[in-house]
Amino acid sequence: MNIKRLGGVVAIAVVALGALAIAGCGGQQASASSNTAPSAAPSAAASPAGGPVLPVASDPIVNTSTKPGLEITGIMVENNVDPVTKEDLGDRLQMTLVNTSSSTLSDLEAYYNMTDSTTNKSEGYYQKLTGLTIAPGASQTIYFDTDSGPGHYPENVYSLYRTSPNEVVIDVKVSAPGFAPATAQVKKAVGTGEKAGE
Predict the structure, then answer these.
(1) What is the pLDDT of residue 192?
(2) Is the pLDDT of residue 74 over 50?
(3) pLDDT, tens digit, 9 for 90 and up, residues 163-173
(4) Can you name the residues that pair with 170 across neighbouring β-strands?
(5) Is the confidence at residue 175, as pLDDT, over 70?
(6) pLDDT at 18
(7) Is residue 195 a contact partner of residue 148, using CB atoms and an 8 Å limit?
(8) Model pTM score
(9) How many CA atoms lie within 13 A of 30 on its CB side?
């Protein structure tokens, strides 16, 4: 009688331990899944500024002012030259902004559209010009590139400008609150990459 009772207790204990083991394994598996899920997310395509630079569907700048005060006096995408040192720079979208008003300009924003002259493919980019202020009568050159520091803003290294072998026309608009947007156009010639000495 005691042996049967002992056998029954052992059987119950074995079943209980088995259930606990199964539950434990399931819990560990769920925990492992939740711990590894975030690492499965892609982390590539980040720009030096901390995030990818992607095209926008349309120009988000809303500025109907007609008051003069902001101008683009120079723009280039090839054969770039540093406006201060006069030394050659790598190809990039570069422009010089001039404040012709009596007020300091701030909260500037830029939109530029690229169009491949052969395929007619087009893509636009928007950028808040964070940290940029231009004093009355002053000028400031800004760059869209992979460099960092004042006056440098990130670019999409896979844009039409960087990848198309055809001529690419770039239309630029820069806006400051209370003043008419400044506009300019520049063209990348046929070919990709820089030529030696340029």
Answers:
(1) 76
(2) yes
(3) 999 999 999 99
(4) 114, 186
(5) yes
(6) 43
(7) no
(8) 0.73
(9) 6
Distance CA 174, CA 188 (A): 19
Tally the C-alpha atoms within 13 A of residue 103's C-alpha that lie toward its C-beta: 11
Name the pLDDT band for 13 (thresholds 50, 70, 90).
Answer: very low
Which pair of tokens denotes residue 74?
A: 């120079």
3-state SS string for the chain:
CHHHHHHHHHHHHHHHHHHHHHHHHHHHHHHHHHHHCHHHCCCCCCCCCCCCCCCECCCCCCCCCCCCCEEEEEEECCCCECCCCCCECCCCEEEEEEECCCCCECCCEEEEEEEECCCCCEEEEEEECCCCCECCCCEEEEEEECCCCCCEEECCCCCHHHHCCCCEEEEEEEECCCCCCEEEEEEECCCCCCCCCC
Phi, psi of 50 (to 5 degrees): 110, 0
Q: Looking at domain 70-188, which of 2.130.10.10, 3.40.1390.30, 3.50.30.40, 2.60.40.10 is its CATH number?
A: 2.60.40.10
